[in-house]
Amino acid sequence: MTREYFLLDVTQLLDIFGLFMLVVIGIELLETIMKTYITQEQSHYEEVLSVAIIAIARKVIILDLKEVDSLSLIGIASIIIALTVGYFLMKRSRGV
């Protein structure tokens, strides 16, 4: 008799982790909407950028490099660069 050491394989663990991250992003988005839209004097672009960065981080974490073509990787990299530059410019314009 052989004994199974792991109940789940790596792909199942990544799927579960991806779903967990999706729930965390949803909660973050709901908190952001409640926090920013109740206080109208605060600008909303910082929260939108931070939620977008969290969402693209989730995509990168659960990404299976064996099944993704190079053009998709270039697209994801350009999204990361654009969000990073946008966040940097936003922080720089606020003087923080």
Description:
- It is a single chain.
- By secondary structure, the chain is an all-alpha fold.
- It has one domain.
- It is 74% helix and 0% strand.
- The protein has helices at 10-38, 45-61, 70-94.
- α1 (10-38) packs antiparallel against α2 and α2 (45-61) runs antiparallel to α3 (70-94).
- The protein starts with 9 loop residues before the first helix and ends with a helix.
Please trace the helix and strand order, writing H or E for each element: HHH
Distance between the termini: 63 Å
Number of domains: 1
Shape summary: flat
Question: Which percent bin holds the helix content?
Answer: over 70%
Q: What is the tally of helical segments?
A: 3
Share in β-strands: under 5%
Major beta sheet, specifics?
A: none
Please tell me the overall pLDDT: 81
Low-confidence stretches: none
Count of DSSP strands: 0
- Supply Rg: 18 Å
Helix-strand makeup class: mainly alpha
